[in-house]
Write a structure and sequence with these properties.
Number of helices: 2
Oligomer: single chain
Helix content: 10-25%
Shape: globular
Distance between the termini: 47 Å
Strand content: 25-35%
Structural class: alpha+beta
Order of helices and strands: HEEEEEEEEH
Number of strands: 8
Radius of gyration: 20 Å
Largest sheet: 6 strands, antiparallel
Number of domains: 2
Length: 138
């Protein structure tokens, strides 16, 4: 059932794309909406992190360079994250971090080091960063 739905969706978008390319009207229900737009990837380098704040054990805010704030949402609880004064970022491949798979948060707790996988990375707008509670500001 899933494969039939997937094929139908691909066919609908292909038809819509061909119609637009030829200047024809797009069939109703096949036009791509705002959710089809690709979000811009916000990348930063591990070496540019200047500070952090952890309001809870599932969220980490990073100050990158002097003005950028990133929110890292973790896949689950990261024990002791909100108590630590130091955290580490283990980046894969290079020091460029663009996607959740590129990084793990490293926290040293009473029983050793815990590595916590990241589920989402979001670059905050200046307005979102200014609206953060004091405890959450890196």
């Amino acid at each position: 059932m899933i494969s039939r739905l997937s094929l139908a969706a691909v066919a609908a978008f292909t038809l819509a794309g061909a119609a637009v390319a030829q200047g024809q009207p797009v069939p109703a229900g096949t036009e791509p909406g705002p959710e089809a737009a690709k979000p811009t990837r916000a990348c930063f380098f591990n070496r540019d992190v200047r500070g952090f704040a952890a309001p809870d054990d599932k969220t980490l805010y990073l100050r990158v360079r002097s003005k950028d704030i990133y929110r890292l949402d973790l896949m689950g609880r990261c024990p002791d994250l909100d108590w630590e004064t130091q955290v580490g970022l283990d980046s894969r491949g290079s020091s460029s971090i663009c996607a959740p798979i590129d990084v793990q948060v490293r926290v040293r707790g009473p029983i050793g080091v815990t590595r916590c996988p990241v589920s989402e990375i979001t670059r905050l707008t200046p307005e979102e960063a200014a609206a953060l509670p004091r405890k959450s500001r890196p």
